[in-house]
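Quick log. Single chain, no ligands specified.
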Amino acid sequence: MRKIILLPIFLLFIQFSWAHPDQEAVEKALYNLKNVRFKQLPNSDPTLLYYELFINQLIDHKNPEKGSFEQKVHFIHRGFNQPTIMETNGYDLYIKPSELTHYLKANYLNIEHRFFGKSVPEGNPWEYLTLEQVTTDLHEINALFRELYKGKWISTGVSKGGQTTLYYRYFYPRDVDVSIPYVAPFNHSMEEPRIYSFLNEVGTKACRTKIRDLQTYLFKNKKAILEKLNWYSQGARLKFKYVGSLEKAFEYAVLEYDFSFWQSGTNCQDIPVTKDMDTVVAHFLSVSNVDFYSDATIDRFAPHFYQAGTEMGYYGYDITPFKKYVSFKKNPSATFMPPGTSDKSFSPKLINEVKQWLEENGNNFLYIYGGTDTWTASQVIPSKNVNSKSFVIPNKDHYQARIKNMDPQMQNEFFEALKNLSGVEKSMVDER
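-> predicted structure:
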């Protein structure tokens, strides 16, 4: 593949006093990497270099004749002797760097997931969206950059990106020294039953009652609320051909409410006790909006749903308390498969293999979860056979379960565990 270097012309002729001392060496190394094109990105921090990369990947790593696509990566260089972090994104590229890059003063490879964002093979050939193919993308990038960085390597990811981190270590256990998945569910089946148990126990009984009462109010007043939502959906130009109708999207959204409530960290005090319908609907939409079940959103997350419905498992909705209000005859799935595919192809084979591996050989993991995050229901609990540790941060949701929100004692325990497993110590760089 032809090498393309996209750099401002003036950088080729002028050496600024604030230029990073490694810039020439880094760009020479990037130029020499196979099947990589790059450009420098704007950056106001003189301690690092920041680049956007496009790396040529095979669509099918077992058969080069199937062609290739480009995978988008954001790359931060701090120093050749620093540790290197791989962010194993589960979706589009998440632009904000992981907090670990600052705590550890690390180099950083922020990797977009295949079939998302700019990293999509032509024609969306779904049969090549497997965890084995996904993790081989990561392995290829790891192999490329090990030519530059000989120090310690850490993989990390948030939510579905954390799931990717789990599977990456399963397929390539020697690529990194430590894995740090954040809020990573590890579902055991297509309809993860631990979700239901969690939702029946999380928080206080009073709060769970308020949630159930709100859901019941929404169902009892469905006809009047749908009239309001019809105007809302028309204004937002929402279409619901996939789920069938706005009414069906409403049912999904009401059933989703308790899951999203705890995942997003909504406060129980925010649940309206008034019977003013406009106030209740506004709150409802702020937590579990019907637009998530629109065709545009389902299309956007089609690769995610495909993976959930074929290999990774997901969750469903317990209709037991609401049977007289809903049109569903059995618990509906939260997975919406792309056209031409079906969750009937789901197999738990890989899940079972990884589950056994984690219990017997899943060493050098540091798991981070939030105590009130719904996805903590399907957390990985390290067995006594491995040296991995789990850090569940009390009263934190899916978005707050971060190292910066650990209390001082837990944070010290976390970094002590990281040091023991890898030798990597916390740096004095401020978290940003």
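The chain has two domains: 5-188+349-422, 194-345.
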